[in-house]
Amino acid sequence: MSQSGNQSGELKQTPLNALHRELGGRMVPFAGYEMPVQYPQGIIKEHQHTRAAAGLFDVSHMGQVRLAGASGGAAAALERLVPIDVIGLAEGRQRYALFTNEHGGILDDLMITNAGDHLFLVVNGACKEQDLAHLRDHLSDDCAIEPLHEHALLALQGPQAAAVLGRLAPGLADLVFMTAARVEIAGADCFVSRSGYTGEDGFEISVPAARAEALARRLLAEPEVAPVGLGARDSLRLEAGLCLYGHDMDAETTPVEASLTWALSKARRRDGARPGGYLGAEAVMDQLAHGVARRRVGIRPEGRAPLREGVELIDEDGRALGRITSGGFGPTTGAPVAMGYIETAWAQPGTKLGASLRGKVHPVEVAKLPFVPQRYYRG
Amino acid sequence: MSARRYTEDHEWVLLEGGTASIGISDHAQEQLGDVVYVELPEEGVKFAEGDQAATVESVKAASEIYAPVAGEVVEVNGALSDDPSLVNSDPFGNGWFFKIKIADADAVAKLMDENAYKEYVESLQ
User: Fold this and answer.
1) Beta-carbon separation of A43 and B81 below 8 A
2) What is the pTM of this model?
3) pLDDT (tens digit, 9 = 90+) per residue, A110-155?
4) Contact at 8 Å (CB) between A102 and A87?
5) Fewer Cβ atoms within 10 Å of its own Cβ: the N or the C terminal residue of chain B?
6) Residue of chain A minimizing CA distance to B31
7) How many interface pairs between A and B have CB atoms less than 8 angstroms apart?
């Protein structure tokens, strides 16, 4: 991947930059990269295509990191930074994780995969430099930390993704959700996981930068596949109830407040095999035991106006109860959808609230997440 | 050549009698992408030139529409409530936003004509 644009203000490019332009992608700055927000089809059609067939996303701006230590030392070391059971993660298995700070706030969310002789991490593009510094600060003595600058990351998402990849690499169709394998696709040595950020079945493919464009072209040549930009990626993940770092969670938000309690491994809880032992564990375990004052919920606006980040949620007397952190129009739901933080007493699905936008109060309802059923392949 | 006039904010104005129809240009709808909601002013509201008059929401973002000329809103395009995508499919026709009974016809004449707007858009590329 091109690292030429490290000076502030200058945007980096992914290995697929020329392809995006050829496909008519509208390029915008995102996480320090020049990325396609949409192609000529437009966000709604790209979104719908992903839900109906297979969408190809360039997510090469994300950070890919290898952690390697002697005799599984990397897993034990990494457990100091995440409230996740990494030691118990079997080879070929993947787990969602969070880097916490000393107050239990979320520094980033990430995927951890046991790749056999190393752990493979995928972190957010906008956080990757600070994540690397964080890893080096805490883990340098115990494992080698290797950022994979020369790798692209492609995501193929949608109900027909498995049929497409199965054609190019037999065996991939049998991979189940949250597992990974090293395979050759169209001559490229790839590390493929069955996961994604759309709520659909799908794959993420780590591929050497030099092979990325050829692989993307090969995938786009399949009749089910269309290129999909960041705009639809955002509406897809929002409908799927998935958090966007820096919006739906940040260093001031804990995993319990973010309604990510499901991600906290049993082994790392107070009554688990290895309780605590990560940054902020006391704060997180205290919240698990005693609850939190506010938490993340789904918000379904009753009208047609999209309610976006920053919109205040109020009770009927106009008292502020919380705030929307992500919101927009859901092309699959055919209506606006949002998520945000609300005082816990108001967090029950079905609770009626108001949202103030441009001087008007719009009725909204607390909703269960996700807005669109997740359709992961569990075998 | 059309009598349609344009602002630097990519609104168009078409004067017929003393009433000006207002919408956004094809360039603007293309830049916005899929329009999913339009918040229109109420009939009877009076705007000064440059007042915030409407909001158009695409999948990605909300954009404000400013009154290109002063006057009183006499009609709004109710069809946009049911089908906001008319702004994308027919920005100069069925995708109009609202009509203003204008105070000063000369204010419209001061706006850019078709050619001047075309040059303006090209200068932005």
Assistant:
1) no
2) 0.94
3) 999 999 999 999 999 999 999 999 999 999 999 999 999 999 999 9
4) no
5) C
6) A26
7) 39
